[in-house]
Design brief:
Length: 268
Amino acid sequence: MINITVNGYVYPITFSTFPGGEEHVNIKENNTFPVDPTEVVVTSSIHSSTELVRTLLVVDAVRQMRWGKYTLALDLGYLPYARQDRVCARGEAFSLKVICNLINGLNLDEVRVTDCHSEVGLALLDNVVHTTQATAISRNKEMHNILSSDTDYLIIPDAGASKKSQELADLYSLKTIQCSKTRDPYTGRIQVEMLIPPMAYNTNLVVVDDICDGGGTFMAIAEALHPSMTLYLIVTHGIFSKGKKDLLTEYEKVLAVYDDSGYEKPND
């Protein structure tokens, strides 16, 4: 999903792919839209290389409109390739740096990112405006209501999520349960261990994280908990590549600030 907002008005964009595979974009002007904008925001949810290229082209198409002086922002929500934030073996690419260099090459006034998976991405981006996990989740009415009234404990899936999940726990004065996660190198199966306080039984618990992709971690957490516990899953970015069906057998609700479970791939 890619759109352009000019002074609050949404400009329609048409996308097409040439027979040779190259992408093409066209911004459709309308006489009712402002012609002298003060702010232009390109909002893009990037889940494929096609959408990455289209986003780069849309930003340039905005500049080709030859409007006057204005603030140009790219609102990404999820920073693509944020999980590939280092080189793990000889011969691999530093994928996140490549993507950030492409974005920096657009010379944007703002690059807006929400709950970035890696601080490396924030360091690599120019003019980045970051919305934290705690802020993004607290602004969601349904999530706020669950955390403020129906939650007894916040479950932190792994050590990497500890810092920002603790900020959310502090915001809502919640106790936390820290998990340690391992993956079997042969089967790929995820195993989770945690110390559960006796008073946590027969209570409501919220598992919180930045990303849910296939959901294996969250299924492993649910399997490690007692059936008497009512579970909720709250994430910032819901990719849900395997859908929500299995998750909803274990969790009362599965919620995402950015929910891409209904996402349609280009040309489908």
